């Protein structure tokens, strides 16, 4: 009986040991499974934190973008206003430039018309305007003109080389430009102050010459200021009375351009002559 009970006890012990071993294995398996679950949970938490951080970053960037767009819109508005102001300013500058050019052109024309009265200052302005000089060279030219007492009468007697030497020009083309420009002005605006002798002789030789303030300027001789009897065109393109130009050609500025092989080059201006005749006839009838 005792051995039988012992065997039963051993069997129960083995059975319990086997069950305990199974429970231990189940426990280890559960422990491993729990570790895997915990690891996955930790990974999920980490992923959540990462996603939450990115979402927060996106919100921050979105807010920054909105603020940046607000600044950009303000800058665009300011730029638009600035462009509008610049356009208006540019238009004002253009108008001022146009007015300045018109004023300069008017003053320049007035200066040209009074070339016979030029002194050192006017001649310096003429040279500076023609050669596009700044103030310092013009001041130097003025000193040269004043020192040598050069006026418009003196300019009439100067050759291109004289222009270059007297005014210390380094380029001969500048001297040619000044010489030709002054000649053009003299021809464009003939001055009676340089032909007083021819005017007086013409007046004395033709006492019947008609002078009137109402006579069209194109009918008057630039030299005698009388109505032309025999209008002729000279090489400078100006129409004179034949008697006046023949007697006074040598007194005109740069008169060499009027001659060909020593002969005064003149062409009758029949159109003006006929108009003068018609004009005189109509005034006689009145």
Automatic annotation (TrEMBL):
Domain U-box: 218-279
SUPFAM superfamilies in UniProt: RING/U-box (SSF57850)
GO molecular-function terms, A-Z: ubiquitin-protein transferase activity
Record-linked InterPro entries: Ubox_domain, Znf_RING/FYVE/PHD
Protein's GO biological process: protein ubiquitination
Pfam families named in the record: U-box (PF04564)
Protein name, per record: Armadillo/beta-catenin repeat family protein
Native source species: Reticulomyxa filosa
